[in-house]
Design brief:
Blueprint lengths: L15 H6 L16 H10 L8 E6 L2 H5 L4 H9 L5 E3 L4 E3 L5 E6 L6
Parallel strand pairs: 1-4
Antiparallel strand pairs: 2-3, 3-4
């Protein structure tokens, strides 16, 4: 007996997510209040490059707490990146893929950081 394999399609929502992810500019700025899909858009943007050997990406937050707290960047990345073959390392706050690509999360709280 064979098991059915669930296929998951990950794509941006129409509106700000789609506009951000299809922007041809080198730098795209997306603003708005909490819950406006900014974090998810950043996480999806990194997925464009995971098949590129040696790719390194980083997403910053002001504090490490903003990365680790429940429902924030680390949790959201887990909901997305596990479906793409990424392997998490919570102690270093990064994800790696079989190609050697890596996405890291880091904090920049002060100007000296």
């Amino acid at each position: 007996m064979t098991q059915a394999i669930e296929q998951r399609i990950i794509k941006p929502q129409k509106g700000p997510q789609l506009a951000f992810l299809t922007c041809p500019a080198d730098i795209a700025i997306m603003g708005g209040s909490a819950g406006g899909s900014k974090t998810f858009s950043q996480l999806m943007d990194m997925l464009r490059h995971i098949k590129t050997p040696g790719f390194r990406g980083v997403i910053f937050r002001r504090t490490t707490e903003q990365i680790r707290k429940q429902g924030s960047l680390w949790d959201q990345s887990g909901e997305l990146y596990t479906h793409t073959g990424g392997k998490p390392r919570e102690n270093t706050l990064d994800w790696t893929w079989p190609t050697g690509s890596k996405v890291k999360f880091d904090a920049i709280q002060y100007d000296r950081d």
